[in-house]
Amino acid sequence: MNVLLEAIELTKQYKGLKAVSNYSVKISPGEIRGLIGPNGAGKTTTFNLLTSMVKSTSGNIYFEGKNITGIRADQIAHLGICRTFQNIRLFKNLTVLENVLIAAQIKKKYNFMSVLLSSPSFLREEKHLVDQSLELLETMGLIHAKDMKARNLPYGQQRKLEIARALAVRPKILLLDEPAAGMNPSESTELMGLIRYLRDKFDLTIFLIEHDMKFVMNLCEKIQVLLCYHRGIKDDYFSNAIANYFKQDLFDYSGNGFNTKAYHKGKTIIM
Ligand SMILES: Nc1ncnc2c1ncn2[C@@H]1O[C@H](COP(=O)(O)OP(=O)(O)O)[C@@H](O)[C@H]1O
Ligand SMILES: [Mg+2]
């Protein structure tokens, strides 16, 4: 199997609490993968580990076959792993366009002196970045709001701006932490189409956390369930969230706990 991103037995221990315990995953290029689980299961921490925003206690991460465990978060972005946040993190007092431009600068080729002297190469590059950022806003349906302060955007559009900002770094894999949270049903349906479109347009791989089961089941070919058996939490998430979604019309499921696979209408559910 061709693997883009792989984690092997990642663990994150905070004092007495294992936020993530022996987490492993293999994601293929072009895949749209889902990660689900109850609140506190460690989903966001998993994304923090994969993007080097927190340091793992143990375990390894590989990207395109290279061990990237412990490298800096900015190096992670350069390699092509970008993310959005469960709690939106925009520059609220900057405009929509400026938010995207700042991210696009990460890929800039000019140096400080050429900026200072406004050299032709800087001006060319800057125009290129603005054009590229405007195009991204167009793709994301945010062009009408380009000069608006990010704080004045409706919530659903702030989520889309976060995605635009991540895309400005031209990632290979995009990690989305609850992208549909706070969206109304029509916004989240639109977002599903948009995520598929972005995957195809930019040759992306997508890894997303989402509570909305309809969203996850419609969009993802493979869905991984994070359970918290290791913390002794009674785990009825599987029976509640997933079985409810299918109204007991359950899939071919055997076993109970980790390393179990289940199949339903072409979807693979990994536990
Ligand atoms: N910086 C931290 N310090 C201590 N505990 C943390 C920290 N970050 C997360 N946790 C704990 O780790 C567990 C998993 O959190 P999180 O990854 O946010 O879960 P999820 O995203 O699945 O809801 C929770 O019990 C949370 O309180
Ligand atoms: Mg979370």
Q: Brief overview, please?
A:
The chain has 271 residues and is α/β, with parallel strands linked by helices. The chain has two domains: 181 residues, 3-Layer(aba) Sandwich (Rossmann fold), CATH 3.40.50.300; 78 residues, no CATH class.
The count of β-strands is: 12
Q: What is the CATH superfamily of the largest domain?
A: P-loop containing nucleotide triphosphate hydrolases
Q: Write down the Rg.
A: 20 Å
Q: What low-confidence regions span 5 or more consecutive residues with pLDDT below 50?
A: 246-259
Describe the largest sheet: 8 strands, mixed
CATH top level label of the largest domain: Alpha Beta
Report, as a whole number of angstroms, the end-to-end distance: 19 Å
What bound compounds does this protein have? adenosine-5'-diphosphate, magnesium ion
The 3D shape can be described as globular
Describe the 3D structure.
The chain has 271 residues and is of the alpha/beta class. It has two domains: 1-80 and 171-271, Rossmann fold, CATH 3.40.50; 92-169, no CATH class. It has nine helices and twelve strands. It has an eight-stranded mixed sheet with strand order 6-7-8-3-9-12-11-10, with helices on both faces. The protein has a four-stranded antiparallel sheet with strand order 2-1-4-5, with helices on one face. Helix 3 crosses helix 5 (120-139) and helix 3 (96-104) runs parallel beside helix 6 (155-167). The two termini are 19 Å apart. Residues 246-259 have low confidence and may be disordered. The site of adenosine-5'-diphosphate has 11 residues, from strand 2 and helix 1.
Write the SSE topology.
Blueprint: E1 5-14, E2 17-27, E3 32-36, H1 43-50, E4 58-63, E5 66-67, H2 73-79, E6 81-83, H3 96-104, H4 112-116, H5 120-139, H6 155-167, E7 173-177, H7 185-201, E8 205-209, H8 213-219, E9 222-225, H9 237-246, E10 252-253, E11 261-264, E12 267-270
Helix pairs in contact: 3-5, 3-6
